């Protein structure tokens, strides 16, 4: 029997209590479970009393955290015991142990029903309780009508009725269809006439569940709820036992007000008036008293009333009255009320009318940040977070920062995240934002996630004005004695990129910067060392004139890490060492990082609006980076000026800081010596930069390039655009163009190129004035391409120029292009292509024209790509294997494990190969996860050459595979292998050339990531 | 809806637990441990609210009351009023007090079957069933009478349970 003792049970509980440790307890419990199991098995002789005792023991053991699955059946079986004590145990324990989907429950459903419809009230109660706790859908369907009957029966005692109401609630939750809305609404309203407050409380809970789904059917209940509320608030006819610390059933008041919050509006003016009277009474008549319980109860009602007032959208007067109350609450001694005051203020803040009134309490809310109770501090933080806007961001964020150093650890992470978000969202100026984030890192470095410091670097990189400031700040923090590693990362990164901007200031010489950063190296973890190495490389690059001592010192560090066990560190060390010996070319390779593609964020948007220049520079830098990733073979180092545009060579770092004069396109200066002064003459800032002195060297040394100002597609709209679409030189030497490009291309150039790689006719380029179509025929190593230049306008296109910049492996001949394309006319320009050698490089069409005052120049990749010189071929298995075996190893047969492959089902991969004219030969490889393909490749040099490819995929990890390529020509094998790799790694996003010569690890990393997400990009870059 | 009722002592041992949503036993215990680790670090005279979402998932709240060696904890969702839940704990404890005359932890340990019966008269399937401890007592007395009528065994008197305690 439940309420009286069972000796065995008490002994067992004592034993467990006497266990000294968990191990002993486990032993004792196992022993008991063993005993119970044996007893249950030997069915005969187990008296109901014993059974009951064991089932209770099981519940106790279950509470201690042990599994008692085997006993479920026993507990359920007790439900059908005839006597009350056993039955009671069965019902109670079953509802604790068993979940609603348990099969055994189905067995009991009939017993349960019998108990519910039976005459025994106590059995009814037990059955209802169990169904109310664990009744599932099946119970719902078979029992709902019976339970409803009980609920409306006049002979049913309140004790049963209130259980029936909540039981119905459960069944309704499991299956809303069991309550027939039309019929039930009337009954529900009748139930609210009940005088017994116990039944009324349960019925109100039921009503809340019903109206939360469908309030429309229950309009008739609304006035009754208001009546009930009036009765309670006026304390009319409330029995003593339902008065809790002098307050008429606070639970019923609360529930009733909850129910009212589900009705969108109260239309009847009388009802509305009475309700507001009651609410007013509650709002005004509640005081904080000494007795905690009374306080809790009266404020339970009060806070619910506040919620209802907010919901009803009361007049502003009442609202501000509520805010005043809340303002009082957040300052009282009683912590629960402070807590709820803050919480409700946060809710209330959604209502615009009162926001200003709430803001008046800012000081008190900030005080709550120092409350001894962490729960209250959290609420205060939430409230401050939601009330923060441009007007108070500085105050609030600074408070948060101040609090950060004393805040408990449990809150620091949230605190720093919130401070960072607010600082970013409402920053009045960016230098303040940088300050905030650096302070955050300083005070709570371990809680500042990577995202936060990546973000600040994005801001600094994208905002030129900010860079010197950030560098100075970073330098300041490095002087502090013990700084968090994240601070080392940020400072090293910022100083590496932008430290040179302050080179004239004391403490900013490359050597000093290097020394202070290098001091930190022994203290940092392996994840930071690569960043430091990059910084060293950048310092080296910025040291002008070179400082041999510093250089040797840095080289020594690179040397030291060349054998580091960490691959990332080792790779950087090796590469930087090699790169830094390239002399002036280092400047190009390690050029300043490009700007990050902008994220969708309110702040950024505003920044874009106010700083158009910045946005465009950002686009330019982005492009510069992307270009520098493209193949070096595209570089024509001795490019002749076309269109009267001189090829301007300038140090990138100089250029990135300054606008390119738009007048440049009208100059015609062939000699480099002449060009330079012009550049310098128009670029006001160049002289200030140390590099300007070396411009000559840079110029003579390498890469020329240009791009007339209006020529290049702005990648702003689509950050992918630049990847494949603009094939300019590999060097990052792209002049910055501050003039808006008047002519925007239509469609995605890279996309168009990609699709033309797979088919032979289509549109290569289109803008509002011109459309360039293309049609090609490929025969062995030769191709004939026809360009269709169509003028879309009613005025002529002038100064039309088309020049092919062929890579070394292609011989091209373009027929004459007329200088003028008449209105609405189409001109055909045949182009002959001969493939000399296998290569993945791409020919570029440099195309320009003038429309009105707009000079347009675009550089378009031509789809004369490697796969155009492939022809599908089918060969027999014998031939294939004979060839495969005869090409025994490098350099004719190359194998590579490719990672980071875009995962594709094998079938799709086969289609992809087919689309590139690589014939997939099914059945040649016995392993179904492998793929074998072949093709013939044609070039003048190699003639027809058979190529064999085998791909071994890993079904468990589709992002990696092993690829073997074989052919009779080493160059072909290598080029084809790389070609296929590129095709697999970057399938749709971009057909993009990875750097071939002198790749910098920085760019390589981002290449693989090929992501437009700045966070990921930054992560990859670092 | 109330999701769970937990009663544990100040050493973190569960004394009564009842979950109104199905939770696997390991999860129940993890939750109990986590709740305890939060509660035991809380000072006196602070609020009765604790952040529960990290333990019980979104839309969960927790109120607790500390009596002598016991924590009484209710976990519920936003459809309930926090202070009303706190009042409910008070009702539960007052009812226990009436049943056992100055209830102590041992009463709960050794009469946990009876506590279940009492709890079932206050909270029903996660909803507040009865808020008047007088009414609860009436129901419990009825049950006791029924059991006595079925003439099972002797009551374990309070003195016996005290005697058993260490």
UniProtKB/TrEMBL annotation, chain A:
Q: Does the keyword Membrane apply?
A: yes
Xref: SMART domains: Alpha_adaptinC2
In this chain, a 1,2-diacyl-sn-glycero-3-phospho-(1D-myo-inositol-3,4,5-trisphosphate) is annotated as bound at 7-8, 49, 53-57
Outline the extent of the Clathrin adaptor alpha/beta/gamma-adaptin appendage Ig-like subdomain domain: 754-863
Q: Which UniProt keywords apply?
A: Coated pit, Endocytosis, Membrane, Protein transport, Transport
**Which Pfam families does this entry report, sorted A to Z?**
Adaptin_N, Alpha_adaptin_C, Alpha_adaptinC2
- Compartments it resides in: Membrane, Coated pit
Query: Which domain of life, per UniProt?
Result: Eukaryota
Recorded GO MF terms: clathrin adaptor activity
Q: Quote the function comment for this protein.
A: Subunit of the adaptor protein complex 2 (AP-2). Adaptor protein complexes function in protein transport via transport vesicles in different membrane traffic pathways. Adaptor protein complexes are vesicle coat components and appear to be involved in cargo selection and vesicle formation. AP-2 is involved in clathrin-dependent endocytosis in which cargo proteins are incorporated into vesicles surrounded by clathrin (clathrin-coated vesicles, CCVs) which are destined for fusion with the early endosome. The complex binds polyphosphoinositides.
A GO cellular component annotation here is: AP-2 adaptor complex
**Subunit comment for this entry?**
Adaptor protein complex 2 (AP-2) is a heterotetramer composed of two large adaptins (alpha-type and beta-type subunits), a medium adaptin (mu-type subunit) and a small adaptin (sigma-type subunit).
- The protein's predominant localisation is membrane
**Similarity comment:** Belongs to the adaptor complexes large subunit family.
| UniProt-listed InterPro entries | Adaptor_Complx_Large_Subunit, AP2_complex_asu, ARM-like, ARM-type_fold, Clathrin/coatomer_adapt-like_N, Clathrin_a-adaptin_app_sub_C, Clathrin_a/b/g-adaptin_app_Ig, Clathrin_app_Ig-like_sf
Q: Which PANTHER family match?
A: ADAPTIN, ALPHA/GAMMA/EPSILON
Could you tell me what this protein is called? Answer: AP-2 complex subunit alpha
Q: Name one GO biological process term.
A: intracellular protein transport
UniProtKB/TrEMBL annotation, chain B:
Q: Which organism is it from?
A: Arachis duranensis
Q: Name one GO biological process term.
A: intracellular protein transport
Similarity comment text for this entry = Belongs to the adaptor complexes small subunit family.
Annotated AP complex mu/sigma subunit domain ranges read 1-146
Q: What is this protein called?
A: AP complex subunit sigma
One cellular component term (GO) for this entry is:
cytoplasmic vesicle membrane
PANTHER family xref list = ADAPTOR COMPLEXES SMALL SUBUNIT FAMILY (PTHR11753)
Q: Where in the cell is it found?
A: Cytoplasmic vesicle membrane; Golgi apparatus
Record-linked Gene3D superfamilies: 3.30.450.60
Tell me any Pfam family this protein matches: Clat_adaptor_s
Q: How does it sit in the membrane?
A: Peripheral membrane protein
Matching CDD domains, A to Z? Answer: AP3_sigma (cd14834)
Which keywords describe this protein according to UniProt? Cytoplasmic vesicle, Golgi apparatus, Membrane, Protein transport, Transport
Has UniProt tagged this entry with the keyword Transport? yes
């Amino acid at each position: 029997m439940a309420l009286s003792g069972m000796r065995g049970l008490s002994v067992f509980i004592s034993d467990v209590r006497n266990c000294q440790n968990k191990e002993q307890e486990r032993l004792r419990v196992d022993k008991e479970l063993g005993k119970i199991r044996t007893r249950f098995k030997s069915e005969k002789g187990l008296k109901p009393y014993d059974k009951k005792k064991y089932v209770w023991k099981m519940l106790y053991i279950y509470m201690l955290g042990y599994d008692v699955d085997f006993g479920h059946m026993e507990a359920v079986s007790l439900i059908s015991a005839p006597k009350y004590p056993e039955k009671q145990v069965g019902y109670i324990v079953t509802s604790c142990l068993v979940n609603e989907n348990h099969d055994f429950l189905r067995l009991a459903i009939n017993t349960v029903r019998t108990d519910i419809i039976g005459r025994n009230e106590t059995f009814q109660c037990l059955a209802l309780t169990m169904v109310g706790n664990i009744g599932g859908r099946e119970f719902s369907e078979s029992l709902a009508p019976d339970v409803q009957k009980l609920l409306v029966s006049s002979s049913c005692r309140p004790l049963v009725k209130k259980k029936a109401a909540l039981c119905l609630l459960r069944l309704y939750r499991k299956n809303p269809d069991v309550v027939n809305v039309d019929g039930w609404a009337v009954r529900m309203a009748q139930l609210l006439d009940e005088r017994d407050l116990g039944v009324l409380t349960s019925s109100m809970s039921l009503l809340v569940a019903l109206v939360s789904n469908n309030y429309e059917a229950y309009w008739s209940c609304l006035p009754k709820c208001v009546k009930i509320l009036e009765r309670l608030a006026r304390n009319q006819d409330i029995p003593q036992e339902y008065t809790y610390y002098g307050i008429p059933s606070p639970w019923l008041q609360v529930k009733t007000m909850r129910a009212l919050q589900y009705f969108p509006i109260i239309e009847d003016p009388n009802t509305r008036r009475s309700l507001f009277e009651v609410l007013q009474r509650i709002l005004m008549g509640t005081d904080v008293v000494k007795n905690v319980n009374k306080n809790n109860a009266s404020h339970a009602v009060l806070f619910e009333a506040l919620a209802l007032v907010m919901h009803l959208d009361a007049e502003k007067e009442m609202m501000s009255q509520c805010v005043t109350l809340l303002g009082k609450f957040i300052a009282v001694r009683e912590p629960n009320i402070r807590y709820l005051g803050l919480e409700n203020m946060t809710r209330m803040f959604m209502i615009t009318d009162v926001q200003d009134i709430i803001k008046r309490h800012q000081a008190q809310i900030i005080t709550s940040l120092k409350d001894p109770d962490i729960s209250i501090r959290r609420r205060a933080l939430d409230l401050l977070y939601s009330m923060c806007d441009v007007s108070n961001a500085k105050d609030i964020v600074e408070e948060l920062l101040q609090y950060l150093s004393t805040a408990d650890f449990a809150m620091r992470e949230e605190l720093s995240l919130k401070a960072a978000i607010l600082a970013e969202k409402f920053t009045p100026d960016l230098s303040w934002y940088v300050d905030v984030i650096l302070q955050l890192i300083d005070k709570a470095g371990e809680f500042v996630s990577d995202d936060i410091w990546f973000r600040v670097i994005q801001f600094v990189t994208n905002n030129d004005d900010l860079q010197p400031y950030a560098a100075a700040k970073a330098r300041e923090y490095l002087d502090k004695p013990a700084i968090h590693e994240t601070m080392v990362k940020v400072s090293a990164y910022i100083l590496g990129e932008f430290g040179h901007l302050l080179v004239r200031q004391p403490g900013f010489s490359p050597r000093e910067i290097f020394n202070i950063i290098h001091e930190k190296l022994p203290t940092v973890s392996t994840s930071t060392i690569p960043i430091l190495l990059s910084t060293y490389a950048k310092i080296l690059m910025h040291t002008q004139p070179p400082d041999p001592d510093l250089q040797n010192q840095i080289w020594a560090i690179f040397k030291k890490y060349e054998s580091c066990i960490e691959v990332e560190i080792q790779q950087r060390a090796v590469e930087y060492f090699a790169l830094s010996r390239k002399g002036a070319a280092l400047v190009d390779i390690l050029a300043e990082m490009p700007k990050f593609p902008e994220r969708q964020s309110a702040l950024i948007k505003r920044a874009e609006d106010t700083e158009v220049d910045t946005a465009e520079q950002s686009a330019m830098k982005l492009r510069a980076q992307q270009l520098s990733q493209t193949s070096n073979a595209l570089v024509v180092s001795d490019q002749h000026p076309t269109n009267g545009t001189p090829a301007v060579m300038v140090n990138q770092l100089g250029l990135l800081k300054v606008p390119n004069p738009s007048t440049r396109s009208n100059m015609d200066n062939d000699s480099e010596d002449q060009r330079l002064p012009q550049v310098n003459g128009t670029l006001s800032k160049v002289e200030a930069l140390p590099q300007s002195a070396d411009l000559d060297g840079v110029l003579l040394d390498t890469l020329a390039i240009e791009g007339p100002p209006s020529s290049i597609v702005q990648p702003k709209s689509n950050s992918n655009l630049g990847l494949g679409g603009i094939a300019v030189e590999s060097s990052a030497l792209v002049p910055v163009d501050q003039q808006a490009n008047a002519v925007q291309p239509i469609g995605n150039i890279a996309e168009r190129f990609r699709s033309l790689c797979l088919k032979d006719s289509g549109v290569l380029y289109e803008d509002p004035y011109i459309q360039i179509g293309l049609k090609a025929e490929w025969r062995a190593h030769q191709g004939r391409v026809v360009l269709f230049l169509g003028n879309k306008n009613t005025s002529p296109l002038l100064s039309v120029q088309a020049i092919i910049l062929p890579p070394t492996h292609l011989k091209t001949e373009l027929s004459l292009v007329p200088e003028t394309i008449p209105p609405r006319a189409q001109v055909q320009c045949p182009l002959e292509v001969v493939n000399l050698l296998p290569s993945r490089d791409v020919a570029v069409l440099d195309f320009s024209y003038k429309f009105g005052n707009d000079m347009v120049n675009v550089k378009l990749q031509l789809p004369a790509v490697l796969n155009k010189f492939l022809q599908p071929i089918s060969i027999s298995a014998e031939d294939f294997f004979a060839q495969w075996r005869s090409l025994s190893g490098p350099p004719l047969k190359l194998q590579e494990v490719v990672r980071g492959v875009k995962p594709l089902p094998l079938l799709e991969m086969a289609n992809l190969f087919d689309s590139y004219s690589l014939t997939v030969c099914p059945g040649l490889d016995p392993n179904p996860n492998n793929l074998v393909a072949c093709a013939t490749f044609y070039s003048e040099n190699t003639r027809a050459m058979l190529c064999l490819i085998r791909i071994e995929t890993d079904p468990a990890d589709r992002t990696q595979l092993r690829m073997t390529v074989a052919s009779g020509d080493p160059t072909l094998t290598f080029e084809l292998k790389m070609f296929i790799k590129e095709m697999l790694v970057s399938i749709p996003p971009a057909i993009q050339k990875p750097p071939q010569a002198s790749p910098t690890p920085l760019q390589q990393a981002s290449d693989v990531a090929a992501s437009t997400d700045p966070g990921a990009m930054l992560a990859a870059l670092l | 809806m109330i999701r769970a009722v937990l009663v544990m002592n100040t050493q973190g041992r569960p004394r009564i637990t009842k979950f109104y949503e199905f939770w696997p036993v390991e999860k129940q215990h993890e939750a109990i441990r986590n709740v305890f680790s939060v509660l035991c670090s809380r000072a006196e005279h602070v609020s009765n609210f604790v952040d529960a979402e990290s333990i019980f998932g979104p839309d969960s709240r927790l109120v607790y009351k500390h009596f002598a060696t016991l924590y009484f904890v209710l976990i519920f969702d936003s459809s309930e009023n926090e202070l009303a839940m706190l009042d409910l704990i008070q009702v539960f404890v007052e009812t226990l007090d009436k049943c056992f005359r100055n209830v102590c932890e041992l009463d709960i340990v050794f009469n946990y079957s009876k506590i279940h019966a009492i709890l079932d008269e206050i909270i029903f399937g996660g909803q507040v069933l009865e808020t008047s401890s007088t009414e609860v007592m009436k129901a419990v007395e009825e049950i006791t009478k029924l059991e006595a009528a079925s003439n099972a065994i002797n009551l374990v008197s309070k003195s016996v349970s005290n005697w058993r305690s260490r």
